[in-house]
User: Fold this.
Amino acid sequence: MASARARAGPDEPEAAALARDARRERRRALVLAAPALLLVGAVALLPTGWLFWLSVIEGESFSAAHYLRLIQVESYRRIFWTTFEIAAVVTILAALLGYPLAYWLSRLPERWANVGLVLVLVPFWTSLLVRTYAWLVLLQRRGLVNRALLDLGLIEEPLRLVHNWTGTVIGMLHILLPFLVLPAYASLRAIDPAYLAAAASLGASPVRAFWTVFFPLSLPGLLAGCLLVFVLALGFYVTPAILGGGRVLMVAMKVQENAGLYLDWGAASALAVVLLLATLAMFALLARLVPLERLLVSRS
Amino acid sequence: MRTTFLAGAAALALIAAVGTAEAQQKLAFTSFGGAYQEAQRKALLEPVAKELGITWVEDTLTGIAEVRAQVRAGAVSWDIVDLGLADCAAAQSEGLLEPLDYSLISTEGFDKMAFDTHWIGIIYYSTVLGYSTEKYKDKTPLGWKDFWDVKGFPGVRSLRDYPTPNLEIALLVDGVPKDQVYQVLATEEGVQRAFKKLDEIKSHITVWWKSGAQSAQLAKDGEVDMLSIWNGRLDTVIKDGAKFTYSYDDGILSLDCLAVIKGSKNKDLAMKALARMVAPDLQANMPLYINYGPTTSKAFETGKITPEMAKISPSSPDNAKKQLVIDARFWAVHRQKMQERWDAWKTR
Assistant:
């Protein structure tokens, strides 16, 4: 900055020089971002547009047939319902488990909080497939959990923990929990403890101070985490396929089947487009509640 | 300038000539890899290579998708492909295969369901009722009727998460004779009848398995007591020590086929090689390496297959007559529709 200002001649007002600097900086940033932008354009936007195109074409002409099929074939309605239901349940459970964890971490001294965060992140270092299979091993009929419960005499018959809805939710919750904890933690950490002290000095009990002062301030971070978890859950494929026992059908599984097995790109695209639009609608809804930037960047 | 051009053209022509000469001796064979393709290599490819003086270039695939990709892109690098039953028929109707030259290929000893104009069966495998020998010590389930008998044979059950062969099995349990299963299934009432029979067992199915490996794991870990499973998978698991067994009573015979991919650059040679591969004397080599059954009954008359091997082979005459042969043509036509009904039924 100092050198830039020195280059700006004596006649040039400082503000203009600063503005020029800023423009130059933006251009440089654009050049730096260009590869990523091109990549996103080439591998995300173009194919998405193509996907949309395929979904409205039947044979040689435009047609709503693929979308009508989603409405008429009852299995698709149920599959969409299951997908949103599971995503919602996983999100709620993640919030109930993740928020207290994030809260506790945010109250710890920074050094210990970092240790805690690393522990939260550890699952990320293992492949999703491995973690899903690990749950299968733990939860199945002769798995560790059932054996332990049987040996302790707590149950007489093995519990049906996997190959169903329950197993799918457990597996997905485990995989998605960090996506809630991290943004929530960042937002909680940023809340100035002085607010709580002020509330206390005005006579609020700790519980009241939490609910009227702390919780509303932490909401953007929590919602950002919820949104991330929800959107990611909507697209899950591997975990329900392995832990669902064939009973839990989610949209991504049908996309794969229609495209890979039946070469019905129209049907697969229509499914994908509906899922995408539903996700964007959720996003828009939340963006009305919380400013988008705060949601995505999750700083308080 | 001119001389360089000529020299270049000559060089190109030379490369092309050498290329064709070489291509005439090479054939590309694509199958499912693993122990299966290794068995095919020893049983079929090596003898054919010797007889015809060719070399094989091998590749692997996972199904019809890759065949489509090559044909549609006009970049066909394979000659002979191995596909699963419904894919064979689908590939034929999608125009992905060359018509087979039946003046070269003999279908003696083949079931009429085991070949079509563009494909011919190469192995049989069977979907059998596998059951735990620990759970069912005194009274053993003897067929799909017993699988449906949840009171007589209590236990955790699993079926494949796919319309076929469950619809066929349901009709068999409902009393439809084997030779009428597809006639019945071709009607709307027949399909409803099959789903109604499946309703009875639905709540007793703990797992709907998706892949062969998953079904093997279910048996191996003792996760279920009774399941439908491919005989080859269960053989492997039993060899690994799982306390399971099966019989071919009520088994559902399915096959893999060989076909020549549309646009194969060595079509004529591929026909010759394919004709040899499906011949009884070479098919009879397969059971030496893997327990899949020859698709021609003539293979059992070559003397290569011992009575012990025939006893456990899915397609030996004694075992084949206890079983139902899947109709590839039916499934090529109805697969997607049935899948939707299957999903609707399963999520109901």
The interface with chain A takes residues 63-65, 68, 94, 156, 161, 206-210, 221-224, 335-336, 339-341, 343-344, 346-348 of chain B (CB under 8 Å). Chain B has two domains: 25-124+255-320, 125-252+325-347. The beta strands of chain B are 26-31, 55-60, 80-84, 120-132, 157-160, 205-209, 226-230, 244-260, 324-325. The CA atoms of residues 42 and 111 of chain B lie 25 Å apart.
